[in-house]
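Input structure tokens:
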């Protein structure tokens, strides 16, 4: 019986009893049986889908982090990121006050160079390093906006908004709900002052992510559509930053639709994103918004959508058809060190509703917050070879297991959700 399932079950029970809610009432709200809730609370059933765990959290009136035990409280060194998070919150709270900055801030072009550095840190999933950089960058961008006017002032606000986006991503990965909420609000505030016609849609893209934590799938879809409308004209004209945002929003909408139980809409959204990926320029683009959107990213979301709908067979089929070059082009943070290869414990020879009893789970321990993968509940360290997969994760009894356990995509598919919720990547 996996230890983490037992821990989550105990947290579910405590949250339910805190409300004085009978198991039968929780079961009815979730469309499950009382026996199912009982087995969850005893750790006999894993909440292995984001939609299910988020619905559970919503019914218990807690944040999903409360059920999965994030952020982890480990050694002092591993908790240093929380000091940086506190500094960021302090800066964000005084967003409309005169900034406290010694000296003269650098110009906007130099500050944008700092965001390029953050982009590289994000691709390496160095979340603690990101948080350490951000207090000074937010302060300097705000100081530049205070002393500037015209285009330079707008660019300063653009830097501030994108810095908030980096903080938002790191806060999701590390598990800091207050920072998640405040960075999203401040990003929208700064985007509206940036003069960037695409940036407000990026902040909506951030908000969609946050709506998943409360299982508001239909609101997430509505917000996605509003944001898509904001950039539709630029998308149709082929403006590359708009293409990236438009495609990324369609992928968020696809996941929202899948979790809402709408297979047709989810697949249509993936198809729209595929069309957007086909419109990406082959020339390098200055991705100032730091949105990872590519054909490989679309394929990973297609796998995730199939998994969310419980269609393991389709997920395996999509996995087998992905060209290796698309996977290799993805950033390291998209799963090169993730070793959870079995979606919902499905097996290569199992049906969409059958799990293999011989599948073996690797041991799990809380990682360092500065590790090179954002999952706070990942397996033990992988080999130094990026695409190597521990064979212990596979079903030893299944002759066809090797056709997929050694492929990187089943580790990578997880990241479609890992970047999209407050949950550790193995659960999403």
């Amino acid at each position: 019986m996996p230890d983490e399932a037992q821990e989550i079950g105990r947290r579910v029970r405590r949250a339910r009893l805190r409300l004085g809610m009978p198991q039968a009432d929780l079961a009815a709200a979730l469309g499950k049986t009382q026996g199912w809730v009982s087995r969850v609370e005893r750790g006999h059933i894993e909440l292995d889908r984001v939609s299910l765990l988020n619905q559970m959290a919503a019914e218990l009136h807690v944040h999903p982090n409360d059920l999965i035990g994030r952020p982890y409280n480990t050694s002092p060194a591993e908790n240093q990121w929380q000091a940086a998070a506190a500094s960021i919150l302090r800066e964000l709270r005084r967003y409309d006050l005169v900034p406290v900055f010694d000296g003269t801030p650098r110009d906007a072009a130099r500050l944008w160079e700092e965001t390029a550095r953050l982009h590289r840190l994000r691709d390496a999933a160095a979340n603690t390093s990101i948080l350490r950089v951000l207090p000074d960058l937010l302060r300097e961008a705000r100081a530049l906006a205070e002393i500037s006017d015209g285009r330079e002032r707008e660019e300063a606000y653009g830097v501030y908004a994108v810095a908030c986006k980096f903080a938002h991503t790191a806060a999701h990965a590390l598990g800091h709900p207050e920072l998640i909420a405040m960075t999203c609000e401040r990003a929208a505030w700064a985007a509206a002052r940036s003069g960037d016609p695409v940036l407000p849609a990026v902040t909506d893209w951030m908000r969609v992510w946050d709506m998943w934590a409360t299982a508001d799938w239909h609101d997430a879809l509505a917000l996605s559509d509003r944001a898509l409308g904001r950039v539709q004209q630029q998308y149709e004209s082929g403006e590359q930053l708009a293409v990236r945002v438009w495609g990324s929003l369609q992928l968020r909408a696809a996941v929202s639709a899948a979790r809402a139980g709408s297979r047709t809409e989810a697949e249509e959204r993936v198809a729209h994103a595929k069309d957007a990926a086909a419109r990406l320029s082959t020339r390098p683009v200055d991705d100032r918004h730091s949105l990872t959107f590519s054909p490989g990213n679309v394929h990973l979301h297609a796998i995730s959508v199939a998994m969310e709908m419980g269609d393991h067979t389709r997920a395996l089929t999509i996995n087998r058809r992905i060209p290796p070059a698309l996977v290799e082009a993805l950033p390291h943070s998209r799963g090169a060190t993730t070793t959870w290869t079995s979606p919902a414990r499905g097996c290569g020879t199992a049906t969409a509703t059958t799990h293999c009893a011989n599948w073996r789970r690797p041991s799990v321990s809380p990682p360092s917050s500065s590790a090179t993968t954002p999952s706070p509940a990942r397996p033990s360290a992988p080999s130094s070879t990026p695409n190597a997969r521990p064979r212990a994760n596979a079903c030893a009894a299944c002759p066809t297991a090797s056709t997929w356990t050694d492929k990187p995509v089943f580790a990578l598919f997880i990241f479609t959700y890992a970047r999209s919720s407050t949950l550790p990547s193995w659960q999403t």
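Residues 10 and 41 are 6 Å apart (CA to CA). The two ends are 20 Å apart (CA to CA).
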